[in-house]
Amino acid sequence: MGSLIPVEDLNLHLGPSSSISASVRDPLAPSSSVSASIRNPLIIPKKEPKLEPLDDLLDEPPVAHYRTPLPFYLNTSNNLNSSSTFTVTPSPTTPITPATPSPTANNQEPVTSSSNDSSNVYSEFYRLTELFRNAFAEGGERNGEGAEFEDSDISRAIVPFNSENENQLLNAVVSRRKYSQRSAELVRVTDLSADDVQYFRNLVRKTRMLYDAIRVLAIAEDEKHRGDLVPHRRTRGDLKAAALLRQRGLWLNRDKRIVGAIPGVEIGDLFFFRMELCVIGLHGQAQAGIDYLSASQSSNGEPIATSVIVSGGYEDDVDTGDEIIYTGHGGQDKHNRQCMNQKLECGNLALERSMYYGIEVRVIRGFKYEGSVSGKVYVYDGLYRVVTCWFDVGKSGFGVFKYKLVRIENQPEMGSSVLRLAQTLRTRPLEARPKGYVSLDLSMKKENVPVFLFNDVDNNNEPVFFEYLLSTVFPPHVYNHGKNGTGCDCIGGCLDGCFCAAKNGGDFAYEQNGILLKGKPVIFECGPHCRCPSTCRNRVSQRGVRNRLEVFRSRETGWGVRSLDLIQAGAFICEFTGVVLTREQAQIFTMNGDSLVYPSRFPDRWAEWGDLTDIFPDYKRPEHPSIPPLDFAMDVSRLRNVACYISHSSNPNALVQPVLYDHNNVSFPHLMLFAMENIPPLREISLDYGIADEWTGKLPICDK
C-alpha cells in the first residue's frame, strides 16, 4: 500500500473574502444594489462561538496556526487506516490561489497570534454573554434543541456491566476532565479503495454498537433504582454513553474537520440521538443546527459551515427534498417563535462563506418517527451546496437570513424519502407499489404481523410453495432431557433475583422494552412451567415477529429480507426455524443430495453485542451459561420461515443468539436473530453464515 498524500490545510486556500454585503443579497436584486452595498459595507462584530458539548476550557495558550500543516501521515492520533491509500485534499472548488508558504514552513514553526490582552478580554466577554443567552433561551438555538442537555452532568455517568466470571456488578464512573477542541484543519477524504471503505464502515459500526450497548446498560441500571425509597435522578443513557466514549478517546473524526462525506457513514443511516451524531463526527453540535469551523479557529478568520440539521424548527424553512430554503439561526424565544432580527454571525456567516467558496455541506434531517426510542430520528440525506442566500422578512415580521441548498446529483436516494415510502407500504402497499407483490402474507396469518413477498425482477415465486414454519421442530427426546418441570413463581412478571434470572447468571438478558443487553452463549427465557404472564420481560423471542418483514427478489442475492419498520439495535427480529435432525439423520439426508443448515457454522457474533473491551481492557466475554458445540442440522427443504431468505454478509447487521424456553436441553437451542445496529426500513437484513453457504446456494450479499 502506498503512503498517504500530505496536503495543505483547506483554510490556507481561503483567501481574503469579498464584502459580505455583496454576497448576501436577494437573488432577484439588481446589480446596482450590490455596488451600493459595497460602498457601505456591513460591519459585523466579532463573536466567539459557544463551546462544544462536553467541552471545557483548557488552561493553555490559543491554538497556533501553521503556514504549512503537519503532513497527514505524521499525525499519530488520527482515526484513519494507516495502511490505506487515499487522498485528503482541500476543496477543489475554492476559487482562491493557494497561499505561498513562508521560508520557515519546512520547519513547521507556528505563526503566533497578534491579539493582545484587550482583545482576549472582549473575546471572553462575548463568549460568556453567548453562554448566558443560550442558557435562558432568549436568542434560541437553531431548531429548538435546547432541552437536549438538561441532564448533561457527566460526572454522574455510571455504566454497569456484568463480570460473568465473578458474578459482580462493576461501576465505571466518568469523571469530569478537560478535553481539547476538535481540529481546525479542514480536509476532504477522496479516492478511497474498497478496503478503505470497508475499514471505515466497520469502524463506524463498531463505535455505534458500543454506544448503543453502553446506553442500554445505563438505562437498565437506572431501572433497578426506580423502586428505591430514596429519590433517584433518571439517567440519560445517550449522554452517559457519549461521555464514557469520549473519556476513552473513542469519538471519531476529532483529529480532522472533514468537509463532505464522512468515511464509513452511508446515506440513509439513522440515528436516535444528537449525541450519537457528535460521537461519529457527522454533526459536531449537540444543540445548534449549524456545525461550522469558527472564525477564531480558521486560518483566515472566516467561519466555514460543514453540516446542518433540518428539523422544521423554524417557521420560514421550506423543504422539498432536493431543494431546501434553510433559515439561519438565532432570534427565537424559548417557544421557538421568531422575536427579533437575525444577525450575520456565527453559523449564519459560516453558511454564507461556504456558499462563497463552493464548499458542500452535509444535510441531516430530523423528525418524529414511530419506533424510535427517543421519539424522533435523524437521517443522513447526503451532500448539498448553498447556491444563494439573502436577507428577508419572515412570517413573524422579523428579518431572517435564508439559504437555498440544492442536493448534489448522482447520490443514493435520500433516507428520508425511503422512510416516507416505508410508512405508506405498511398501510397501503398496493397503492405505493401497484405491481410486484406476489403475496401480502407469506406466513398465512401465523405470524403476529404479515410477511410480504415482493418480486419485480422475474417470475420466480418459489417462497409461496413452502409451508411456513412458525417455530423450530425438535426431536421428541429433546423434551425429555433434564428437569422440565421447574420454573419461576413470578405471578405478575419476573423480578430481579427470581429463579429464571439466576439461570441467566443473576441478571436478565433483556431490558424492560425487550432490547438485548448483552449477548451470551445461551439465554434462558421463562417457559411453560413458569407462572409469569406472556408479557414478562423474559419472554422476548418467544412472542414472535413484531416488525413487518418483506421477502423480496434481488438481482445480487437471489432472495433477501428487509423490514418495513425501523428495527432498533438489540431488538428481536425473528427465529431461524427448521426441522432439527441429529447427526445420523443429517448424514442420510446429505447422501441423498439434500442441503441442510448447520447451526455450528454461525460465528459467535452474539459476543460482539455488549462487548466492552474498548472501555474496560480487562473485560471478558460472557462464558456462562455455557453450552456444548451445536451438533445438529436443520432441514429447510419443505418447512421454513422468513429467516431462511436472509442473505449472507461478512459484515452483517443481525446476529444469532441461542435461546432456550420450552425445554432445558442446552444441546438444542432455538436460533433467535437480533439486530446488531439500527436497521432502517427497506434496508436488507444480513447474517454471517460463516463457512461458504453451499447448503443454500445463495450468493453473498454485498458488504454494506
From TrEMBL:
Record's keyword terms, sorted: Chromatin regulator, Chromosome, Nucleus
Is the keyword Signal assigned to this protein? no
Extract the SUPFAM superfamilies matched here.
Answer: PUA domain-like, SET domain
Protein name (database record): Histone-lysine N-methyltransferase family member SUVH9
Q: Which residues form the Pre-SET domain?
A: 486-544
Q: Which GO terms describe its cellular component?
A: chromosome; nucleus
User: Which residue range or ranges hold the SET domain?
Assistant: 547-690
Q: Where is this region: Disordered?
A: 15-35, 84-119
Q: Name one Pfam family in it.
A: Pre-SET
What's the gene?
A: LOC113734370
- Taxonomic placement: Eukaryota, Viridiplantae, Streptophyta, Embryophyta, Tracheophyta
Q: Which organism is it from?
A: Coffea arabica
**Any idea where this protein resides?**
Chromosome; Nucleus
Q: Where is the composition biased (Pro residues)?
A: 92-101
**Organism domain of life:** Eukaryota
